[in-house]
TrEMBL record:
This is peptide-methionine (R)-S-oxide reductase. It comes from the Bacteria. Pfam families: SelR. Keywords: Membrane, Oxidoreductase, Transmembrane, Transmembrane helix.
Amino acid sequence: MTYAFDDKTMERRRFLFALFGGGTAVALGGWAAVRLMGRKGGGAMAATSAAANAPSQIVQLECFAEEDGRDLGMCDVRKLVLTDAQWHQRLSDPAFNVLRRAGTEMAFSGPHEKPNHKGMYRCAGCDTALFNASTQFDSGTGWPSFWQPIAKRNVIENRDNSYGMERIAVSCAGCDGHLGHVFDDGPPPTGLRYCMNSVAMRFVAIA
């Protein structure tokens, strides 16, 4: 079942997200670019045009309300595709290095290792809902760790053989941004440890 958003909600979301990075977006579980707002200057306009003309891809994500974390069911979302210049405008340098370059932040350097409130984590790049704080645990590793994602369809897992290691990389289904890795040394009930980078996510507290 696809969740339908009314025009008022759509316009509010587009306006708010346009304030943070020059793009417009839609959906509550995964922000997706619908059209890109150009900036003055030939280089910026050319970059915007290139991204806008990129082939679009619609993905089905599990959507969650921003205000109270309510599960809204599946929704069709246009995957967010931007140029490197546009990602740099939207993200901090550390977040760009992780999300767009598959980097890793230093252990114990992020703000999300031990949350003090109920809430959820969303992608810092496209706002896709990723993890519920209720599934977070203290792994002692220095990175926020979870025993399952908020919805399996909202993350992508691929084999990663970089640096001479065999790992499973985890990325956001809404923008293909790198989040971290998943390991099989986690607690019950899944036995998994989704080891994420703090800068790749933003925390939304829920009362």
